[in-house]
Amino acid sequence: MTFxxxxxxxxxxxxxxxxFIYLPVVVLILFSFQSGDLPVPPIDGPSLxxxxxxxxxxxxxxxxxxxxxxxxxxxxxxxVMGFLAAYGLFRRRPASADAIRVLLISPIAVSYLIVGxxxxxxxxxxxxGRSLVAVGIGxxxxxxxxxxxxxxxxxxxxxxxxxxxxxxxxxxxFATMSRIIVPVMxxxxxxxxxxxxxxxxxxxxxxxxxxxxxxxLPVMIFELMRAGLTxxxxxxxxxxxxxxxxxxxxxxxxxxxxxxRKP
Amino acid sequence: MSDVAVELRDVSKNYGGYVALDxxxxxxxxxxxxxxxxxSGSGKTTLLSILGGFTTPSTGTVLIGDRDVTxxxxxxxxxxxxxxxxxxxxxxxxxxxxAFGLAMRRIPKPHRxxxxxxxxxxxxLDGFGGRRIHQLSGGQRQRVAxxxxxxxxxxxxxxxxxxxALDVKIRRQMQDELLHLQRKLGSTFIHVTHDxxxxxxxxxxxxxxxxxxxxxxxxxxxxxxxPASVFAASFMGETNLFEGKVTESRGGELVVETPAGxxxxxxxxxxxxxxxxxxxxxxxxxxxxTEGTFGLGRAKLRDVIFQGTHRRCRAELEGKDAVxxxxxxxxxxxxxxxVASDLWVRPQDIALIHGxxx
Lengths: 263, 358
Fold this sequence. Notes:
The complex is a heterodimer. Chain A has helices at about 10-30, 50-55, 60-90, 95-105, 110-125, 130-155, 160-170, 175-200, 205-210, 215-225, 230-255. Chain A is mainly alpha-helical. Chain A is globular, with a radius of gyration of 23 Å. Chain B contains 8 helices and 20 strands. The relative contact order of chain B is 0.11. The mean pLDDT of chain B is about 90. Helix content of chain B is about 25%, strand content about 35%. In chain B, strands 6-7-8-3-9-10 form a 6-stranded mixed sheet, sandwiched between helices. In chain B, strands 13-12-11-14-20 form a 5-stranded antiparallel sheet. A 5-stranded antiparallel sheet of chain B has the order 15-19-16-17-18, with no helix packed on it.
C-alpha cells in the first residue's frame, strides 16, 4: 500500500501548522503567569505578580512610553511622507514613474542591520548623537517604503476622475487632497500607520544601535535578559505582543478584511 | 460678444508617436448641443479632456467665450465635466457632492445647500440630498453627477459618455432628459459618445471623428442621409455602398457606373471621377414603382430576419454578378420568397460620396 499525503486529515495538518507558528508565543504568555522565579516548567500556579513587577519597574515603563512615542511620531512622519510621495507620483505620472516607484520600495529588502549601521555612520558624521530622535529617524527610513507601497497600491484608476472632478469644480491642490483624496484613502492611510507602528514597536537592531541612555522597550527587555531570564521578561513580552496584535488587527481590518464596497 | 462658445484652432495631441488628435479645428455656437461621435481611439475623449483642461494639447489654441484657455487649469475654466464613471465623492452625501463646487467658490452653507437642492430637483432627485452615494442606482448617480456639474452654472457642459453604463431603457430616458435640460438651461453641451443612435437623438450638430480627424460635421439628418465620406456612411448605420465611376454629367445629375448597374445620382463631378453611392436599406422599396423613382432591377430575397419594426433581408440582384443588397422591409411587405421582385429607390435617397482622398 502506498502512502498518500491526501490521506492525512486536513484538520490535523492545519493544527500542526498553527501549533508550529503559535507555540512559542503561547509558551511565552503561559510562563508570564508563573508564580515561581523561573520561566520553566512546572507552572506553580497562575499569578499576576510578574506583571505587577514589570509595570512597577520604572526603567521598563519608561522604555514602554519611549517606544510608544518613537512609534507614533515616526509612523506619523512615514505615513505623511509615504502618502505625499504616492499621491504625487499618482497625479503627475512622470515618465520615470516606474523607476521612482522601484527606488522608493526597494529599501524594504535592505536588512535593518545595514540600515542601522549606515545611519550610525551618517549621524556620526553629521554630529547627531545616539538618541530616541535618531531611533525615530531610523524607523522613518525603514517604514517610509512600506507606507508608500501600501498607499500607492490603493490609488486606483477610479480615483483619477474623482481627483479631476474635484479640480474641475474649483478645488486647488490642498483642498483636493484634504477634502477628497485623504478622506477617500483614509482606510489605507490608517492601515499604513498601524503597520508602521507595529514594526517600529518591536524593532530591535536599529533601536539598539542608535539609542544610548533612553531606550525603547525591545532594547530594555534585551538588557533585562542579560541579568537573567525571569518571568518579568515574559510579562513585558506579553504586553508587547498584545499591543502588536491590536495594531495589526486594526491595520488588517482596514485593508485585507475590508468588505468590498463598489464605488 | 460673439455667439461662439468654443473655438478650437489646429489642436493636435500626440502621445509619443501616436497621434490622438490631428490639427482639429471647429467652433461651437452658444447654446448648441454638439455630439462628438466616433469609434474608440478616434480622439473624441482626448478632445473633451482638452476642453476640460485635463489634457494639454501638443499644438493649437482653445478658446472658450473669446478667452484663450489653452493653458488654463480646469478650476479656472467656465466648463464642468460629467465623467464617464460619474466620479462622485464616495465619502460624501449627495447634497455635499452637489454643493462641492459651490463650497470651493466660498458660497455660504445655507445658500449652497439651497442651490444644491434646486439642482437636484432639476435632475429629478428631489429629496435625495441626505442619501449616500452607494445607496443610489446607476441612473441616480448619473443624475447626481449632472446636478453637481450644472449647479456651478458652467458656460459649457462637457459630458464624457455619460450614458454608457446605463441599460437601454434608462439611456433613452436620460437622452430625452439631457435634451430638455439643455433647452431649459440654454447652455452649450458637448457630449461624447460612440453610439450613433444616441448622437442622432440628441445632437444639434454631430462632429464625426475617426483617427483624430473630422470625417463629417453637420445636422444628424444630413449626416445620415448624405454622409460626406464612406466612413460616415457606414458608421451612422447599415448601408449599401457601391464603388462607382462617373460616366456622364448632365445638369446636376450624374450617371454612375457601379457593380449594381447604372445609377443616377444628384451632384456634380467630372466624368471619370471615382465616387461611392450609398443607399440606406430602409430606402430600398419593393413592388410597384412610382413615377420619378429609380429602378434597381429585379432581385431575389434571402435570409429574412424579423426585427420588430422591419424585416432585415438580404437580396441578390438578378443577372450581373449577383450583387448583394441589404433591405429593411416593412413587416407587412408581404409575400417574400424565391420569386424575384422589382426594387426601386427615390432619387433623394441615393447619396453620392466623393472619392476618398487616398
